[in-house]
Amino acid sequence: MPQPGQALVRLREHLHQTRLLGSISSALYYDQNTVMPSAGADWRGQQLSLLASQLHERQCSETYAGLVAAAEAEVDRSAPASTRRNLQLLRQELERQRSLDPQLVARLAAAQSRGNAVWQEARRSNDFAVFAPALEELLQLRREQAAQLAPIEPAGRSPWEILAQPFEPDVSKDRLQELFKPLSEGIPPLLERVLVSSPAAAAASSPSAPAVAIPEGLQENLCAELLESWGYDPSRCQRSRSAHPFSCTLGPADYRITSRVVPDQPFSAFLATAHEWGHSLYEQGLPRGDDHYFPWPLGEATSMGVHESQSLFWECRVARSQAFASRWHGRFSGALGSDPWGGSHSFWRGLNPMRPGLIRVEADELTYCLHIVLRFELELALVEQGLPVSELPELWNRRMGELLGIRPERDAEGCLQDIHWAEGLFGYFPSYALGHLISAQLAESMEQQLGPIESAVGAAEESRLQHWLSENVWPLGRSVNGEELVAQVTGVPLSASPFLRYLSGKVDRLLESS
């Protein structure tokens, strides 16, 4: 194998230093959301702003541009395709960074940190007015960012589409609407069938339905057991608590996840742990290189939709499966010293409530994507269609009623529930629904090769599923975009049909067992 030339070596060293700075920023973010005292928010904002400015300067400086150009000149058509793809992605990101005003980058970082802190306070106090000015500022800054990037984007790409590119490369509003329309049409009849046909589901839908009480310490222990059974390595991984579950990578051998215990939601922490561990497994499986560097773009996630497909696979296809419930029912009831579910079937139904709820991260598989349709619509209205921030709570509540048949009584359960807009992450939400579609389509291909997923889970052979993903999905990194990955692995374009087939089959089995 040919050795990299000197220009490539120098470029790699520069990128390595840039990654070190970025990982420091990620570590500060992790600390901010886990153990940092609230009074530290202002100083943390200044720290993150300084790092963002330094990172931006490194990513668009003349020195860096010269390194990229020298590497491009050094590489010819005989070079490995991976090298040429890495340089293509680096050039693309360089042009994006050079299009941005450094002052805007610093203002954005400070506004994101400030927005995070204000959001947490507004959510605690259920006071949208506290958060509204921060949201208005973030919207304005992101619109400025989109305007600065527009000249280097393909003609006709809208401001929202420009902002969505870092999360879902090559995404368009039209394609999302094409994929989401079958969900809006196909999910409500399935939900209605569950609520009408199943007395157990109808009872579970009642606001007065009692929840099984699982002590917080026991929930933590069960989460730790789950991670251990799925290959958690404490020398490389750490789980903590945060207001909003998330996963992040701080280095080539430093993977963090968080979860939270929600009162009256006995499976919340358990399923969130499964979800975030799916994210972390994907990060751990990305192509980093033999020398454990991870500066090259091909070592990054394909897209956030693919990232979400991995977390949703472990949460939904595995941890919410009937076979998994049969295996884990005894652990839960044994730890409690009783069986409040009255058997593994009821335990499985508890893992799959399938009823409308207000909170996205607690939503079932049937209604989850409708939560995303809502956010996608409102993001477009905020970013591109002139929706005043002051009107967001009422529009959110009205559309929630139209889509799911329920309305929040408190903004903390409505437009204040998610952290994403508090950090200016406009364009992120559709990736969650894409994750469901991608997960279902990949799962169909997996089953064609390995047999039923339920059989592997029932035999405690989740490692077989992990191996298939590690062979077919994780190594692709950014060699392709999300839709290209799906087509390459499954042989057909991305579609909502596999997900709707999966949901329909699950509803059939849930109703049969009720």
Separation, N- and C-terminal Cα atoms: 60 Å
The count of domains is 2
**Spans with pLDDT under 50 lasting ≥5 residues?**
202-209
CATH secondary-structure class of the largest domain? Mainly Alpha
Count of individual helical segments = 21
**Average pLDDT, all residues:** 92
Under the CATH scheme, the architecture of the largest domain is Orthogonal Bundle
Structural class designation: mainly alpha
Sketch the major β-sheet.
3 strands, mixed
**CA-based shape:** globular
Radius of gyration: 23 Å
Q: Could you please say which CATH topology of the largest domain applies here?
A: Neurolysin, domain 3
Helix/strand order, N-terminal first: HHHHHHHHHHEEEHHHHHHHHHHH
Give a quick rundown of the structure.
The protein has 514 residues and is mainly alpha-helical. It is 64% helix and 3% strand. The chain has 21 helices and three strands.
Structural write-up:
- By secondary structure, this protein is mainly alpha-helical.
- The chain has two domains: 6-152, no CATH class; 173-512, Neurolysin, domain 3, CATH 1.10.1370.30.
- The chain has helices spanning 6-34, 41-60, 62-74, 81-98, 102-125, 128-149, 159-164, 173-197, 199-205, 216-229, 268-285, 304-319, 322-336, 344-351, 368-383, 392-404, 430-450, 453-458, 462-472, 482-490, 497-512, and strands spanning 237-241, 247-251, 254-259.
- The protein has a three-stranded mixed sheet, with helices on both faces.
- It starts with 5 loop residues before the first helix and ends with a helix.
- Residues 202-209 have low confidence and may be disordered.
